[in-house]
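Example record

Each entry pairs one chain with its bound ligand, Q9C.
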Amino acid sequence: MKSVYSPRHHGQSGQYELVSGAIVPAFEKPERAEFIRARLAEVALGPVLPPETHSLDIARKVHDAAYLSFLETAYDQWLARGNTGPALPFIWPRPGLRSDVPPADIEGLLGHYSFDGGAPFVAGTWDAVKSSHDVALTGAALLARDRAAFALCRPPGHHAGRAFAGGYCFINNAAVAAQALRDAGHARVAVLDVDYHHGNGTQEIFYDQRDVLVVNIHADPRHEFPYFLGHADERGAGDGVGANLNLPLPLGTEWPAWHAALDSACTAVADFGPTALVISLGTDTFIGDPISQFRLTSAHFPQIGARIAALGLPTLFVMEGGYAVAEIGVNAVGVLEGFDA
Ligand code: Q9C
Ligand code: ZN
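C-alpha cells for the complex follow.
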C-alpha cells in the first residue's frame, strides 16, 4: 500500500493544552506523524509519496468559504492585534448569545469558528493544515488505480465541521477525501470512523446527505469528548435519514465488544452499497493511550485492518488521533498491514 506524507505537518507544534484544569504539553504533537512514518519504513509497507498541491475547491464543498479564509488568516490577525504566542479562543457563542454576527476582532472570531480550546494556531498552523488536506486529496486520487492508500494526515480532521475547528482539527481531511471520491464518480461513499472519539465534524458535514454514509465507533459521549454529539439516536436528517450510524461504547471497552461493533459497522457499510470507503483511522482506542479509556492492544490493530479489507472496497485510510506516541507507529501501521495481509 502506498502512503502519502508531508514534513510540513511540523508547522503545527510547540503547543500546550488545558486538561482537567492544568496547562500541559499538547498530546497532538509532531512526533506522532514521525513515529508512523518510521514504522512505514521499518516494515516496508510501500512507497511514501509527497502530496500534490491541491486547490481548496473540494474543501469549499464541505467547509464554508469564510471559515477556510479564517483558518488561512487567523494567526496573522492574532499578530496584527499585537498578540503573541499561540492563538486560542476563550469565549463561545452558546445558545442565548448571538452567533449570526461574526465578530470583527480575532479574539471573538476564534470563538465564532471553534467549539473548544483544542485547536491552537501558531505561525505554521495554516501551512500544516493545508499540507494535511493535500495529503488526504493525494491519497484519494491514488484510489483511481490502487485498491487502498494511507494518508498520513497531521493535524487530524474529524472533529472539524463545516465552519468550526476543535479537538486538534481544522480542515476535515476525511470529509474532503470523501467529497473528492464523490466528485471522481463514486455515487455512494462510506466513511467509517474508528477513532476513540466521535467524529462530530464528519457527522455534521454529511448529516443531511444520503450519498455519504457516516459510521462511528467511539466512546459514549455522555462520558467522553466531544460530549455534545455522537449518541445512538442520531440517524441523519432530511434526505440523509438512515445515512448516519453511531455505535457508542462504554469507557473501559475491550476487544470483544469493540470488534462486535466493528462487525455491525461493516455490515452497515456493506448494506449501503458504496463503491469507495474512507477510514478515519485513530489509534487512541489503544490501552496505553494517555487521554482515552478503551483497552485494545497492539495485536488487535491488524485484525481491524483485516475486517475492513473483507469489505472488498477501494479504501483510503486517513490518520486521525492516537496519543501513545511510542506505540502509534506499530498500531497505525498494524491496521494497514492487517488490511494488506
Ligand atoms: N482530558 C482526536 O483524537 N481533549 N482528537 C481531551 C483530555 C480533546 C481528540 C482532553 C481530545 C480531542 C483527533
Ligand atoms: Zn481521537
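The first helix runs from residue 31 to 42.
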